[in-house]
């Protein structure tokens, strides 16, 4: 199986003079799409959902979309100034279409949206949800970010939006964070959808899963600090899904550190996202149990790697996964000395991908508050344990690479400085010799007074007079003792 091409962000290509029959088809259908979007937007502004005009407009839009998606893999509608592109073909404008396209463009631009992608499988319900959000009032503070957040709360999977590049403020950091957040939120939604669907015995479509993993790989390659920072959000209610996404991010970041190529990272990410998929075959009350598991319950839980592997052959839509990705589900609790589970009939070493996901999984599980673990460990202690206790069964070389990827104090660690300030690590120091000197945000000053907004400090900075670092970390601490949600510093 080959990976689908990753999204490119180049300028739209304007087709030269030669117009092919295909183009003419796309011209017509592109025009139909924008006209039916405009009609649906307008009718939704005027009438309630159940009104016949609305129903007709949405079914017209659904029909046009289906026709387009029969001919095209996906649809990308892009607005640049007064120009409108459908899959990189610039739509011709006449008097009538100018007004209609303008309406659609302006309505989307209110939310800072410059691009809309439509994927096969899109439903009327998804269109309705998206268009209703487009019609809602934008958040003046952060138009595009707020829209993404609202969209992330819906079940829309086959429609996605991109920022209007021209009107975006030139804030690299903000933009980077927003992009990371979008990839993260969409991947959580995909994980929720897939696991939920499989639990109910429904077939699942791999397409959104692949797209989500590609977006994670893109983010790790171009925007690593932001996307890794989001793993600290650790939403308790969504543990199963955020855990899958975090393991995917950590695995891909570790794979990048090891020099894997983009296609390998993609397969790695795919298997990592689905590593616990066997849990959908375990009773929900076991998965969500508060408090420790009984030995019998643990025996049942131990079936999830084998169930995951078997399930992938069984579950409609998953059988086309690469074998390497499937094995990761089977091997992630095996341990390198094979003292874990499942016990293999014939001794076999876990594959590299299996060992990578084991490290990512071990780290995320131990640092996260979840049902059967009330108190998570501080990240630095987890790393030390993984490195120093061979009984844990992690590949020592991979743990070393993982530590040099996260730093000794991973992003999200709460630390106390020698100035007695309390800070949260927000980025590692890129220089390997300065792993103990990350970038932090000071949350409480030495008197325990909240610093608002938090002050950013680079712990590698030295005092020019003495040549010694201005601040050093004394120890890590439990952020909850101070009422800190470390995730707040990454959003
Ligand atoms: Fe697991
Ligand atoms: Fe796991």
- Which superfamily, in CATH terms, is the homologous superfamily of the largest domain? Hypothetical protein af1432
CATH architecture of the largest domain: Orthogonal Bundle
Number of helices: 17
What's the overall geometry? globular
Structural class: alpha+beta
Element-by-element helix/strand order: HHEEEHEHHEHHHHHHHHHHHHEEEEE
- Number of domain modules: 3
CATH topology of the largest domain: Hypothetical protein af1432
Structure report:
This protein has 491 residues and is of the alpha+beta class. The chain has three domains: 21-168, no CATH class; 190-406, Hypothetical protein af1432 (Orthogonal Bundle), CATH 1.10.3210.10; 414-490, no CATH class. It is built from 17 helices and ten strands. It has helices at residues 21-46, 52-71, 95-109, 124-135, 143-152, 172-199, 206-222, 224-229, 239-257, 262-273, 284-287, 295-301, 304-314, 323-331, 352-367, 379-388, 396-406, and strands at 74-80, 83-86, 89-90, 113-119, 159-163, 414-417, 422-427, 439-444, 450-458, 473-477. A five-stranded antiparallel sheet has the order 3-2-1-4-5, with helices on one face. Strands 9-8-7-6-10 form a five-stranded antiparallel sheet, with no helix packed on it. β2 (83-86) and β3 form a beta hairpin. α6 packs across α9 and α14 (323-331) crosses α15. The site of one fe (ii) ion (FE2) has 5 residues, from loops.
